[in-house]
Each structure stands twice: as structure tokens, then as C-alpha cells.
């Protein structure tokens, strides 16, 4: 074997190099993880942190394996967590295999990759890397790397929240931006760092005292850390509404409990800062939602705890052991949210995270996965308490206490609240570091598994094979990680550019990471935009281009659905694409849209949106039919779907309006008026509904004279947002219909009052003015009719419409 890999007792250069790389990679992770972001990718800063973590962990793994090759021996420390962590890994694997969305469970969803099976594997590698390579010298490097990262992150975040922007990038030019993620997650991170900062001050004082320069350096660093602790408290003060104070207090209480009981010893003077921090946190808690300084941060929304628990229970009924699969809470939410959620202000929001990871774990990885997490937590808690209580290594105990206290803050928040992916990452990192500190601080030495390759040539060959296999695997994974980042870089470049350039970038993103369904979705929507833009050119529009854009939109939308067949968002998007295609008379488009909306109702049975879309599709089918019998059949189907939408959300005004129009088409004016009246009651500020109510009263009042006012408004897309998008049409009456005089009956009086009310609110409401003119023309009051037609002439800008109004005035 080459001398470079010699198994001599003295450390070879390669072994020392590998140890340096291991130290560097872990130190960089601890320093950069909270701080790192570039703003160059589409999925956001959590994705960037995970990619950084992923690449550094793989680099550390290569160094660890290479060290074992060079030394001829690989030592693996056996800990009490090995079996439960291994069991959790098996459970996650099985859950991913049987997941409702295998791709998401294995690699994560777009923008949320920290809860996938692959992420767990990376956490596991980091755990092994830290636990098996910890020593006292590295411990100090890791601790100060963590502190330095915290100081830098807190300083930068405080400036951001205060409106002082250091970086020129567009994404950083707002107070809501911070390197952790959401404002609540920033509050969690800062609260978690308080025990470490309180600990860092006395430790900094104890640093190098052998020279004057060393003393000055220690004093300077102590001042920086102490200032950072005060700034952290000030930042929590600014983030008051986003901080879960009980968890922050719990972390400091654990820290002080061991300090004041002398289980972990510090000098009396060194307890001053921890006590001050603890009292400040108590003051913030008792003070409540005070804000002497208003940071004007945007409100954050999350799922309620009660609904999270209900969803977890319903999901467990379906699959109690394995759950729906890692990272698939979005599936569980839309499936089991219930119709009661439709009466909240957030009824049209699809949540992908529960209110607390405990409920989310029950829904996604079942009883077995959740139990494994609880067991891991309890075992870690017990061995930490043993290490703190019985160990004689005073300095390591101090380090362990600080890291463990911080971990408790993070874990408590994650278990009970909605947190960003960066907090999940930090839990994995600090949890691994806590176990590593236990290893070197535990009163009894843990068992070791030694893989020695010195005994015979065959073991040396086995070592070489392992080295080559692991190296090749790491190279593949490292390259894959780089490609994933590059693909999202391309996707981000597609934002804010012209359509042709955006298509080019999205195609590059797909070519680089073809498993990402979001890229296909964005591309399909972009093709629809390009088709509509081309169609808006009128006579000069290129029909072939429109058809090509529509075909491309459908193909890419189908690809997204194929990748994640149980995704409501993907199927709903494809259905909308087919709806758009139907407006260009693409054969079969309405049928395909109906098919996918039906599948959406199966995946999301309690959301009224898809039922409204199905009703609109049936109304469109009716418009295409010539025979009255076929038309009425589709109108009846539309009424059925509108009824289902109303059964899911009884205060959905667009559904009442839609069902009223369907009843009108069936000449059931009494029912139509009743239904649109409900829409007006629910949306009192909607003048369009109010006008439609007046129009229906007018039509019922004059139907014996065969005079009818046409529907002027139509519900369009965006029913998924619970909004009514109105498309303006021509004035609502055909001019040849206004020749007969009728009595000013009760229905016409009601219509007259409604139209006048609309004009009071909106004096330039053209259709209301036109309708009033028509009423008075119909009952023979020519002077009043002329007055309203005159007002209408001052408003209308369309020349053909003006000419039609002039003809009416001349005929009066």
C-alpha cells in the first residue's frame, strides 16, 4: 500500500488534514447556518441554508472516511440514541415508500425541504460526524463559532428590524427580512441564543491571560458578547408580538437552575448577566403586548392548534402507523380540514405546516414516528441531566448546559408553534452538538465500535472498497446538490424578465432538476400568459402561436401533475389551464377541466372553490348547446354544484349569485331573486350584486311584455380566492326590446329603488343609469327617460354605444 496511506502510529499528513477539514466544516456550519443567504434562488433562504448544510456535511463525511482510510481504523462511538434514531430512520423510510406523495416525502416540497427523508439522512450524517470527532480543542472552536454566528446574526437582524439596511440587494430592503426567515422564527432563534450569550461572557473573561495582548483581546471580546446579549434583549423587545415568552423563560430557567444550585459552577459575579436576562424576560412576559417602539412588521398567520389536532386525528384514522408520509401535511390539511374552516378569514389559504410539529408528526409520520421522536427527546434529556449532575469536568459541563438550554428553547417552540425550516435545521445541529458534549462529559465512557484494517490484506482491500464507494457516492451527491441550487438559480432569474427570457430560464431549471413540479407549473402559467397576450393583438394575432402556447401549457401542466399526482395545487392549476384553453375553442378543454376539478374535490372535499368552478363549466356547456332540453340539463347540474359549494360555505356570496343566474336561465325568477338577495346580504358593499338584484326584479316585472334585461356581469376566475371578478359587457338591454309601455308595478318600483341606490353610491354606474332610463321609457315617462339617457351620454365613451343612446333619445 502506498506510503501516503501508511498505518503508522504517528499521524500522517493526510490524517491531520482530514481532521482540520472536519473541524472547519463543523465550525462553518455552526457559524454560517443562521447567517447565510444569497437571495439568488427562488425557494428562499431556508433552501439556501439547507444546501449549504448539505454540501458542508458531505465534505465532512469525505474527510471522516478518508481519515479512517489513512489511519487504518475507523472508530464509531455507540450512544443510547443509536437504536431510537435508527428506528426512526426505518420508520421514515417506510412512511416515505407508502407516502401519498413519494417525491415530496423523499426530497421535500418546493421551498420546504427540511422535513424530507433525505434531510433526515443528512442530519444523521452530521450527528455521526460531530459525535465521533469531538474533543476538547474542537469543542472550544465549535462553541465560539456558534457564538460568533449568533452575534453577527443578531446584530444584522437588529439593524434590519430598525430599518437600517446594510446590504444593497432588493430582498433585504425591507424590515421584514431577516436571515432566519419569519419574524417569529427570528424571535425563537434570538431567545434560544440567550443562554449561550449569557455563558459566553464569563468564558470570554477566562480566555488567554498570559500576555497583555491576550488580556486586551479577552476584554474586547467580552464587551462584544455582553453588548450582543443586550442587543438580543432589545431585538426581542422589538419582536414582542412574535416571541413565545414561556419557551424563552424556560431556557433561561434551566440554565439558572443548574447554576444557582451549584450543580454547574460559575463565579458569583458570572451569574449577574443570566439573572438580568431572566428578569428581563419575565418583565416582557408580564408586560404583555406592549410596543414602545413599533417595528411595523407584517402579521404572520398560522393554523390554529385545535384544527391541527383535528387534522392529526383524522389522518391517524387513515394510517395510524406510518401517517401520510414525511413533509405531506399539505395533503392532510386539504383532505381533513373540515367545512368549519371555511368560516375563518383564512378559508382560502392552504397550510403546509401544523401549529406545532407534534401535531404535524402525528399526521405525517404516524404514531410510530412520533413515538420515536418522543423517545429520542426523553433519552437525550435524561443523559444530559446525568452528565450535568455527575460529571467532574467543570468546563465541559458549562458548555453542555448552555447548548442544552438553547436546544430546549428551540424544541419547545417547534413542538408547540409553527416554525420556519431554519429552526428545524438548528434543532438538528444543536441536538447533535449536545450529544457530542455528552460523549466527552459523561461519567461513564460509551462503548466504541472499531473497524480496524491493519490486521490483514483482505481488510485493507475492504477498506479501499469502502473508501472508493463512499467517495463516489459523495461526489454524486455533491454534484446533485450543486445542480439543485443551480436549477433554482435559473428559476429565480425567470422572475421580472420578459416572457421569452423567462421561458428560457425555466427550461434550463427543468433540464437541471426535472423532478421539481413547481418549475413545470410556473412554465405552464407563463405559456397561458403568452397565449392571452398574443390573442389580445386582435386581428394581427398569430393563431398558430396561440395554439402552440396552449399546447405547451397543457403539456407542462400535465407533467407537474404526473410528478405529484396527489397535489391539489397542481391539479387545480391544470384545470385552470384547460379553462383558459376552452376560451379559445380548444376541443375537449371543458371536459378535461371538469375532470381535474372533480379530482380536486376528491382530494379537497371541503373547499367550495372547485364546486363553483364545476358549476361555471356546466354553465359554459349550456351556452354551447342549441336545444332547450340540453341547456336545462346543464343548468340543473350547475345548480347542483353551486348547492354543494354553499353546503361547504354558507356565506359564499359568489355561489349564491351563480345559482341565481342558473335559476334565471330556467325562467325561475322567484328563486333567482331569492338567491341573489342572499348574495347582496352577504356582500352588502358589492354594487354588482345589488345591480343584478335590480335587473332580476325588472325582468320579472316586465316578462309578460316579453321585455328582458340581460345579465351584465359574470363570475370569472379567482373563485379560489373567494373573490368575484367581474367582466364588463355591453349595456344590458337590447334596443329593440323597449317599445312597449307597462304599468309601474311593484317589481319595477323595487328595481327603480335599487338602481337609484346604486347611483347614489356610484353616480357614474352606466348600467344603473341605463336601467333607470329603460324603466321610465317602459312605463311611458319619456321626460325621466330622457334625463337618464342624457346623464348616460356624459359617461359613455364608446362611440357605437353613444350612437345607440342618441337613437333612443331621438325615438322618444
Mean pLDDT: 87
Proportion of β residues? under 5%
Instruction: Report low-confidence residues grouped into runs of 5 or more.
Output: 1-9, 714-730, 733-739
Structural class: mainly alpha
Number of helices: 30
What is the alpha-carbon Rg in Å?
Answer: 34 Å
End-to-end CA span: 110 Å
Proportion in helices: 55-70%
Q: In which order are the strands of the major sheet placed?
A: 1-2
TPR repeats: 653-686, 766-799
Transmembrane segments: 21-45, 51-69, 81-100, 112-130, 142-166, 186-205, 217-237, 243-260, 272-293, 362-386, 398-417, 423-440, 461-486
Keywords: Membrane, TPR repeat, Transmembrane, Transmembrane helix
Pfam family, one: TPR_8
Structural overview:
The protein has 812 residues and is mostly helical. It has a domain of 458 residues. Helix content is 68%, strand content 1%. It has 30 helices and 2 strands. The protein has a two-stranded antiparallel ribbon. The longest helix has 37 residues. The chain is elongated. The N terminus is likely disordered. InterPro entries: TPR-like_helical_dom_sf, TPR_rpt, WaaL-like. Keywords: Membrane, TPR repeat, Transmembrane, Transmembrane helix.
